[in-house]
Design goal:
Helix content is 54%, strand content 9%. By secondary structure, the chain is an alpha+beta fold. Strands 4-5-6-8-7 form a five-stranded antiparallel sheet, with helices on one face. Strands 1-3-2 form a three-stranded mixed sheet. The radius of gyration is 31 Å and the shape is globular. The N terminus is likely disordered.
Length: 632
């Protein structure tokens, strides 16, 4: 039998069907060839020669496009590096270089996927189109006239210092670029290699910018061209590169040490799709946290409290003074979370009880907390809009007031209450709630803010009064309960390191090393542990105390009630014990699947971060990405 034809014959490159049939002779046995008419054989040989010639032409053209694309790519990298090492004038130089550094990362990441850096070109890439885009990008970066006329960027060559290989190997000097280099060390080495292998004469630029908005426009155009390059990858590769880039942005924000550094990233992502807005919101919250001095790392710098921080507008704190009134038939001050009437509108108030002797000391901290909550305006934080701080010194109560949508009579349910009362909830909806909680924690941790009190009581759902539980479940969720996030001062440490006045069951959501008098300083992994506990409840749709009672400590709920009534201390089980229990693991995997079980394990098992690694977000981003990929 004849052998299978190569792909270029099957595609019918300039061949008639009859010629294709006769080409089978070329792979037939000698005996079979002798059985065919000689004219067929001659025609087939002639056709094959024509195909071979044209295939060689196509291959040569493809090689030429690939070679040109590589040259253009090298030109783009060198041009970006010329800007980085230039003599800069103008206050916006750091901002522009930060944006260029992020785009250079994306460009080199694309080149890695395309095979340019390994000499094994990705055959799925449309190299003709890639070449066109890279040439456009190179032209944009090297056209002095276009940069001046369209973007008010004055660029002039100055033979001050040749940018030779040794100069190119110097590490980045700008602050944010240093953070990128720390997280992506191969980025700088790849750039240095490209420059050292370039045959172009060394040069250095001088440039000055006159219009910040036009600089943003230039960065957006550069980003748009790199978007087009990324679109040449397949969908899986694009998604993977997007996840890596978002993680880089978040970790750079987390590692920033000044409001100026965080502000540069905030300004770069002022507009665009929801992901860009989330990055902008996280960078802004990082600025606010640094001003407030909350959860401060040793390397972070708190700005001087002179009220003037360039590029940062803090939310205006509202100390609310009008009297509260009950809402409907409810009574005021009957719960630490309750509805009330303020200025004829329904509001939600969360109270913190304080001893009269400590009133002044708590007041400063509660005001800082209110400023923080006022900063959570982006929907990625899933926070109700904060109206301000409501002090009631006579009752020894500090209140945080939240607004609700106008024109309705609203009620709330906590996740704890819904788990106890709603028997059947689809896995799809439970997965959605997990995503929303994980996204919120990632946003907070990107800004370096720790929640410190994650538990199902602090995850609430708002719906019109009288709605059934299913309606509540399909709203929200909102995250509340930030009252124990504290500023990192000696006074606030003394006040707020005391454990909250809650029952023993609440301790189940705290990491074992965050319980009791000898607990460790709060860390991101403690929030992650609490999140793992909530995930476990969502997947098994049972209260955590009942889950522990079923697999680890029989009768735990009754034991807790007895211990609290007699003021005794009891040993509480941990999630680590649960995840070592074969029956519990089998049940959890059966109800949720391997992927979601791994999400729980990753959330629960984070170890103590080594020096400098507390700001990294590897586990948080991995959890969010896994949950994003899950579809039911």
């Amino acid at each position: 039998m004849a052998r299978r034809q190569p792909a270029y014959i099957e595609r019918g490159v300039n061949l008639r069907i009859s010629a294709l049939r006769r080409c089978r002779l070329l792979w037939a046995s000698p005996e079979a060839i002798r059985s065919y008419p000689s004219s067929w054989v001659e025609h087939a040989l002639f056709t094959f020669g024509d195909i071979t010639f044209r295939t060689m032409e196509i291959a040569a053209a493809a090689l030429q496009f690939t070679s040109t694309a590589i040259q253009a790519f090298h030109g783009c990298v060198i041009a970006i590096e010329l800007f980085r090492t230039a003599q800069k004038m103008g206050s916006d130089a750091e901002f522009f270089n930060t944006g260029l550094e992020f785009e250079k990362y994306r460009l080199i990441a694309w080149a890695t996927r395309a095979g340019i850096l390994s000499d094994r070109e990705n055959q799925k890439i449309n190299w003709q189109l890639a070449t066109i885009i890279l040439r456009q990008l190179e032209s944009l970066l090297t056209s002095a006239n276009e940069l001046r006329d369209k973007y008010s960027l004055e660029v002039s060559e100055a033979d001050i210092l040749a940018m030779n290989a040794s100069h190119a190997s110097e590490p980045p000097r700008s602050s944010v670029s240093k953070l990128i280099a720390r997280l992506k060390p191969t980025l700088h080495t790849t750039t240095s290699k490209i420059i050292s292998e370039s045959n172009s004469a060394g040069r250095k630029l001088q440039w000055a910018a006159r219009d910040r908005d036009k600089l943003k426009g230039l960065l957006e155009r550069i980003s748009g061209l790199i978007d087009k390059l990324e679109f040449l990858l397949d969908s899986t590769e694009r998604q993977q590169e997007r996840e890596k880039y978002i993680r880089l942005l978040r970790e750079v924000i987390s590692l920033t040490t000044t409001t100026t550094e965080a502000g540069q990233i905030k300004d770069l992502f002022e507009s665009g799709q929801s992901t860009r807005k989330s990055i902008n919101a996280a960078a802004y919250l990082k600025q606010v946290r640094l001003v407030l001095g909350a959860d401060k790392r040793n390397d972070e710098i708190i700005p001087k409290q002179d009220g003037n921080i360039p590029g940062l507008k803090l939310p205006k704190l509202a100390v609310l003074g009008r009297s509260l009134k009950p809402w409907g038939d409810s009574e005021l001050f009957s719960s630490n979370l309750e509805f009330a009437t303020y200025r004829k509108q329904q509001v939600l108030v969360q109270w913190k009880i304080t001893e009269t002797m400590q009133w002044e000391r708590y007041t400063a901290q509660m005001k800082c907390l209110a400023v923080f909550l006022l900063s959570l305006s982006d929907k990625s934080f899933r926070s109700l809009p904060c109206l301000g701080y409501y002090p009631l010194e006579a009752q020894g109560m500090h209140g945080i007031m939240y607004s609700l949508p106008e024109g309705g009579d609203w009620d709330l349910r906590s996740l704890k209450g819904l788990i106890a009362t709603q028997p059947l909830v689809s896995l799809k909806r439970r997965l959605e709630i997990m995503r929303e909680i994980a996204d919120t924690v990632l946003q907070l941790h990107t800004a370096g803010w720790l929640h410190k009190s994650l538990r199902p009581e602090n995850i609430i759902f708002i719906a019109p009064r009288g709605s059934d539980d299913k309606f509540f479940l399909n709203s929200g969720p909102y995250i509340i309960g930030y009252e124990y996030s504290r500023s990192d001062t000696n006074d606030s440490a003394a006040l707020f390191t005391e454990l909250p006045d809650t029952d023993l069951e609440t301790d189940l959501y705290r990491h074992p090393q965050a319980r009791g008098a000898n607990r460790q300083t709060f860390q991101k992994r403690f929030d992650m542990y609490a999140m793992a506990c909530i995930f476990t409840e969502l997947l098994m749709w049972k209260p955590l105390v009942d889950i522990f009672s079923s697999y680890i400590t029989p009768g735990l709920g009754d034991n807790i009630i007895a211990a609290q009534s007699s003021n005794n201390v009891i040993k509480l089980p941990s999630l680590e014990e649960l995840l070592r229990n074969d029956s519990a693991v089998n049940s959890l995997v059966y109800q949720s699947g391997e992927t979601l079980f791994e999400v729980v394990r990753t959330s629960a098992s984070g170890g103590k971060a080594k020096g400098g690694d507390e700001a990294l977000l590897e586990d948080q981003t991995a959890i969010v990405n896994k949950l994003e990929w899950c579809r039911i």
